[in-house]
Recover the amino acids of this structure.
C-alpha cells in the first residue's frame, strides 16, 4: 500500500486487468472491489434480508402475507368491489344473481344527516354547522403549536367557545334562537359535545387535582388523592349509572338536570381524574430548582404555578393530554348504555331500521362507524406523536 | 415563601397581628396559619356537601317511601340468569345477595380468561412488531393501530351482532373437529367429567408447580454462586405437565371428555359457552392485546442496545442474551403498565352490559337495580367491588415494584 501513497514512486498507468503486476512483493494497485452478489443488493437483497432470511422466516412471510392478503381482499371486496352504491331501500342491497353481498352504502348516505345531528330539528341544524366551524377554528388555533397568539386561542376555546356553543346549540330565546331540548340532540354532535365539554372541564379540574395531590397541605392532598384513586378505580359505566340513577337522590328535589347534563358531569369528573395523573407526571418532571427560583424571586404559590411551573409542565404533557382525550373520545360511546343517542347509537338505530334490513346492514353500519372513529383517533394520536417528537427535539438540543 | 422564618412571623394572637405593621409578618400572612385556614375551609366545604347530599337523599328516599339499607340482599330476586356457575334460579327463590355473587363470579371469570389470553396474544404481537421480518412487523403494527383506535364498545357490538348472531344454527354449525362447534348458540366444546381418582391429578399439578418454583429458586441460587446453569424450562415443563400426565395414566385415566354431537336442533352433551361470553372475550382480548403489545415493544426497546452488545461481547449467544439480559430488564419496565392493562380489562368487562353478558354490572347494577329500586346501595356495592380490585392490585404492585426496583448506589 505504501508504494501507492509514496509520491516518490510514480504510479504506473496500467489497466485494471493488469493490476496484479507486482513490484517486488506488493501489488502496485489495490484489487478492484468485486460487485456485491446480486442477491444482497437492491430489491432482491431487501427481500432476502427482510422476508426470506431463513427457512423459518420464509414460512412466516408466507403465512403472514397470505393472512394480510386475505384480510385486505376481504375488506376491499366487501367495502368496494361488491358494494352497492345506489338505491333507495333494502331491495337495492339484497343479493343479486352471481354476486356476493357487499356493503350497503346508500343506507349510510341516506342516514348521514341523522348520524351527524341525531333528531336535532332540521330547520335549526345550521346552528350546529356554525358550531362545528367555530370548534374547528378553535381546535386548530389551540393545537397548532406555531399559531399566533395561542393565549388568545386558549381563551377563545376554553371560555368563549363553550358559551357560544351553549347559546347556539341549546338556544337563547332572548336573541331569537328557540330552545332545542337536549333530548333531541344526537349523533356525532352529542359525541363531540360530551367529549369536548368533558375535556374543557376536565383539564382545569385535573390541574387543580394534580396540584392538590402534590400539595403540602395534608387535607388537600388526601382529598385529591382519594378522589383521583376512586375515579380511576371504577369503570366509566358505573359512574354513568351513578349519574343516571343515583345522582337524583343526592340533589334537591326541585333540581333535576337533564340526562345530558348528568352524563357531562360524570364524564368530566371521570376524565379529570385521569387528566390529573397526566398533569402530575408533567409537574414531577419539572426540576425543583424552578420552584425554588420562583420562590426566591418572591413569587407566591399561585404566581409561581401560573407563571413558572404550569407553562412548562403543561407543555410537556400535551401528548399525554391528547392521549387522555383520545381515550375520552372513545369512551363517550358508553353513553349509549344509559340511553343517550350518540354517534354509535344512531348507527345502531339505522342498522336496525326495517327499511334497510339486510344481512349486510349491520356490517356496513359498524364498518362506517369504525372508519369514522378510527380517522378521528388515529389523527389525534398522530398529532400527539408529532408534538412529542418536536418537544424531544427541543429537549435534546 | 414557606421558609420565611422571620422573627416577627411567630404567631402570638390577633393582638400581635394588630400591633405589627401590615405585611408578611402579620398573623394572617403566616403560611402556617394560612395552611390551617384553607384546610379547615376545605374540610368544612366537603362536610357541607356530604351533609346536604345525605340530607337530600334522606328527603328523597322518604318521599318515595324507601329506606336505606342492605336488607334486600336476603330477599328473593325473582329473575333468572342464563350463565351461573353457582346455582341460581327464581323458582328456588335465589336472593339478591346470590345474584351479586353470580355477577361477581361471572366478572371474575371473563376477566381471568381474558387476562391470560390477552397477555399471550399481546406478547406475541409485541414481539412480532420487533421482528426483522418486514411483513410480520407490518401486520403487527397495522393490527395495533387499527384496534387501538376503535372504541371497545363498537368492537363488542360488532362481534356480537355482526359475527356471532348471524352464525348458522346448531344443525349447520361450523365444526372445528375434536368436538368444537361454533353456532348461534355460542361455542360448544367437549366437557370434561371427572371420575374417582381425578383429584390425584390436581394434587400432582400443584406438587409439580411447587417443585418447579422450588427448582427455579435453587437453580438461580446455584447459578449466582457457581455460574453453573440448569435447564429450568425443561424441568418445569416435565414437573408441571409430565407429572400430572403420568398420574393421569397411572390412576386409570379418570378424566373423560364428553364430546358434543349435533342432534336434532341442538347439541347433545358438551359444554355450551354462551355467545355473549364468546363475543365479550373476543372483544376484550383483541382490544387489550393491542395495548399489551405496545407495552411489550416499548419494554424490550427500553433495554439499551449496549446491554445486548455487552452480553455478546461476554460470549453469550442469542438465547441466553435474551433470557438472562434482555427479558429480566424488559420485565421491569413492562410489569407496571401491564398490570394497569389487566385492571383496564377487568373494568372494561363491565361493557358486557351492552351485549347482555350477565356480569356484575349487567346483573346487579342492571336487573337487580331495576327490580329492587335500591339504586344507592347497589351502586355503592358495585363500585366498591371494582375499587377493591384495583386497590388490591395497586397495593400488590407497589410491593412488587419495591422488590424489583433497581438497587442503585
Amino acid at each position: 500500500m505504501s508504494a501507492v501513497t509514496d509520491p516518490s514512486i510514480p504510479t504506473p498507468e496500467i489497466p485494471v486487468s493488469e493490476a496484479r503486476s507486482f513490484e517486488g512483493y506488493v501489488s502496485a494497485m489495490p484489487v478492484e472491489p468485486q460487485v456485491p452478489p446480486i442477491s444482497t443488493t437492491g430489491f432482491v437483497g431487501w427481500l432476502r434480508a427482510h422476508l426470506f432470511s431463513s427457512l423459518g422466516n420464509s414460512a412466516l412471510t408466507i403465512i403472514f402475507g397470505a393472512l394480510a392478503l386475505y384480510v385486505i381482499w376481504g375488506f376491499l371486496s366487501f367495502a368496494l368491489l361488491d358494494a352497492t352504491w345506489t338505491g333507495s331501500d333494502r331491495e337495492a342491497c339484497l343479493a343479486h344473481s352471481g354476486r356476493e353481498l357487499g356493503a350497503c352504502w346508500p343506507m349510510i348516505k341516506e342516514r348521514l344527516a341523522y348520524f351527524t345531528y341525531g333528531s336535532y330539528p332540521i330547520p335549526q341544524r345550521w346552528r350546529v354547522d356554525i358550531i362545528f366551524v367555530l370548534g374547528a377554528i378553535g381546535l386548530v388555533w389551540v393545537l397548532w403549536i406555531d399559531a399566533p397568539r395561542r393565549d388568545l386561542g386558549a381563551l377563545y376555546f376554553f371560555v368563549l367557545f363553550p358559551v357560544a356553543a351553549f347559546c347556539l346549540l341549546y338556544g337563547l330565546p332572548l336573541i331569537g334562537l328557540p330552545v332545542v331540548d337536549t333530548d333531541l340532540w344526537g349523533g356525532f354532535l352529542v359525541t363531540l359535545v360530551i367529549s369536548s365539554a368533558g375535556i374543557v372541564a376536565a383539564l382545569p379540574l385535573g390541574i387543580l387535582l394534580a396540584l392538590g395531590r402534590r400539595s403540602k397541605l395534608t387535607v388537600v392532598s388526601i382529598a385529591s388523592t382519594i378522589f383521583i384513586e376512586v375515579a380511576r378505580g371504577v369503570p366509566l359505566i358505573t359512574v354513568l349509572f351513578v349519574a343516571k340513577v343515583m345522582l337524583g337522590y343526592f340533589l334537591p328535589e326541585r333540581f333535576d338536570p337533564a340526562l345530558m347534563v348528568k352524563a357531562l358531569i360524570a364524564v368530566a369528573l371521570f376524565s379529570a381524574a385521569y387528566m390529573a395523573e397526566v398533569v402530575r407526571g408533567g409537574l414531577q418532571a419539572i426540576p425543583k430548582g424552578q420552584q425554588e427560583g420562583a420562590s426566591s424571586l418572591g413569587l407566591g404559590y399561585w404566581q409561581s404555578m401560573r407563571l413558572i411551573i404550569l407553562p412548562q409542565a403543561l407543555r410537556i404533557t400535551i401528548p399525554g393530554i391528547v392521549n387522555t382525550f383520545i381515550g375520552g373520545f372513545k369512551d363517550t360511546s358508553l353513553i349509549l348504555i344509559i340511553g343517550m343517542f350518540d354517534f354509535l347509537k344512531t348507527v345502531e338505530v339505522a342498522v336496525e331500521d326495517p327499511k334497510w334490513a339486510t344481512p349486510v346492514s349491520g356490517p356496513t353500519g359498524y364498518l362506517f362507524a369504525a372508519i369514522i372513529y378510527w380517522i378521528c383517533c388515529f389523527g389525534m394520536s398522530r398529532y400527539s406523536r408529532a408534538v412529542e417528537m418536536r418537544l424531544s427535539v427541543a429537549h435534546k438540543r | 415563601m414557606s421558609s420565611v422564618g422571620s422573627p416577627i412571623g411567630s404567631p402570638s394572637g390577633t393582638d400581635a397581628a394588630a400591633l405589627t405593621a401590615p405585611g408578611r409578618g402579620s398573623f394572617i400572612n403566616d403560611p402556617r396559619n394560612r395552611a390551617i385556614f384553607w384546610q379547615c375551609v376545605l374540610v368544612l366545604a366537603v362536610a357541607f356537601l356530604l351533609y346536604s347530599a345525605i340530607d337530600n337523599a334522606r328527603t328523597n328516599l322518604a318521599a318515595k317511601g324507601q329506606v336505606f339499607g342492605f336488607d334486600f340482599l336476603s330477599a328473593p330476586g325473582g329473575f333468572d340468569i342464563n350463565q351461573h356457575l353457582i346455582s341460581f334460579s327464581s323458582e328456588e327463590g335465589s336472593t339478591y345477595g346470590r345474584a351479586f355473587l353470580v355477577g361477581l363470579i361471572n366478572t371474575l371469570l371473563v376477566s381471568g380468561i381474558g387476562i391470560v389470553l390477552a397477555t399471550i396474544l399481546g406478547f406475541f404481537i409485541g414481539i412480532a412488531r420487533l421482528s426483522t421480518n418486514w411483513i410480520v412487523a407490518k401486520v403487527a403494527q397495522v393490527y395495533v393501530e387499527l384496534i387501538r383506535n376503535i372504541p371497545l364498545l363498537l368492537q363488542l357490538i360488532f362481534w356480537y351482532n355482526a359475527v356471532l348472531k348471524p352464525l348458522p344454527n346448531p344443525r349447520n354449525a361450523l365444526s372445528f373437529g375434536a368436538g368444537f362447534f361454533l353456532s348461534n348458540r355460542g361455542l360448544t366444546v367437549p366437557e370434561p367429567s371427572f371420575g374417582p381418582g381425578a383429584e390425584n391429578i390436581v394434587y400432582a399439578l400443584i406438587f409439580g408447580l411447587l417443585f418447579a418454583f422450588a427448582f427455579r429458586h435453587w437453580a438461580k441460587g446455584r447459578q449466582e454462586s457457581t455460574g453453573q446453569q440448569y435447564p429450568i424450562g425443561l424441568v418445569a415443563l416435565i414437573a408441571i405437565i409430565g407429572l400430572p400426565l403420568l398420574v393421569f395414566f397411572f390412576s386409570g385415566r379418570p378424566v373423560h371428555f364428553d364430546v358434543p354431537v349435533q342432534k336434532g336442533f341442538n347439541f347433545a352433551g358438551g359444554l355450551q359457552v354462551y355467545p355473549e361470553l364468546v363475543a365479550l372475550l373476543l372483544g376484550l382480548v383483541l382490544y387489550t392485546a393491542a395495548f399489551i403489545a405496545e407495552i411489550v415493544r416499548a419494554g424490550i426497546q427500553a433495554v439499551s442496545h449496549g446491554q445486548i452488545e455487552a452480553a455478546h461481547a461476554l460470549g453469550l449467544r442469542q438465547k441466553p442474551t435474551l433470557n438472562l439480559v434482555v427479558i429480566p430488564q424488559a420485565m421491569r419496565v413492562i410489569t407496571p403498565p401491564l398490570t394497569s392493562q389487566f385492571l383496564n380489562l377487568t373494568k372494561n368487562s363491565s361493557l358486557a352490559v351492552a351485549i347482555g353478558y350477565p356480569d356484575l354490572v349487567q346483573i346487579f347494577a342492571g336487573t337487580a337495580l331495576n327490580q329492587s329500586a335500591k339504586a344507592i346501595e347497589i351502586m355503592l356495592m358495585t363500585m366498591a367491588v371494582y375499587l377493591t380490585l384495583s386497590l388490591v392490585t395497586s397495593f400488590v404492585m407497589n410491593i412488587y415494584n419495591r422488590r424489583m426496583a433497581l438497587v442503585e448506589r
